[in-house]
Specification:
This protein is mainly alpha-helical. It has one domain. It is built from five helices and two strands. Helix 3 packs antiparallel against helix 4.
Length: 158
């Protein structure tokens, strides 16, 4: 197992904290939509997990590209596809945990079960996004422009 260099480890820690923020926003969107679908529209929780997931992942993708893993990865559609493919494992784990909570452990509070299942998947989700989706070795950089700085780097340039 190779150790990360200090600058690389620092960058990974910064990205992890940024991803915590971005993941928190995406989770709020996911859980909020899940709640809306189950409580306001009476949609079955198993379907609502998938619907909320779609909104949460779209939010996560947008914010990850802007804040956490900012850069000029080309083509953007490939980044989008990789992001959703990586997120499918999180969807499967969320669905399994939700069914387990409700059907096996008789959780009555669906929103609490959704929050717990989302929290469990967080670390795995970050690692998968960093290694698979936003690994620069997987993309062509735009020859005409340098990499776009992260939000933190943009602030420090002011």
């Amino acid at each position: 197992m190779h150790k990360l260099s200090k600058p690389r480890a620092k960058k990974t820690r910064r990205q992890l904290f940024q991803y915590l923020f971005v993941g928190g926003i995406a989770t709020v969107v996911d859980v909020g939509m899940f709640s809306l679908f189950t409580q306001a529209f009476g949609i079955d929780y198993r379907i609502a997990v998938v619907l909320g997931f779609c909104f949460g992942v779209l939010t996560n993708f947008s914010l990850c590209n802007w804040i956490v893993f900012a850069g000029k990865r080309k083509p953007l559609w490939l980044v989008f596809v990789r992001h959703y493919i990586a997120s499918l494992s999180v969807l499967v784990s969320n669905e399994i945990m939700m069914i387990s909570f409700v059907e096996i452990f008789n959780f009555k509070n669906l929103v609490l079960a959704k929050i717990i299942s989302s929290g469990v998947a967080f670390v795995f989700n970050f690692a998968l996004k960093k290694a698979y989706v936003y690994n620069d070795a997987n993309y062509k950089r735009s020859a005409s422009s340098p990499p776009m700085p992260t939000l933190t780097e943009r602030r420090s340039q002011r």
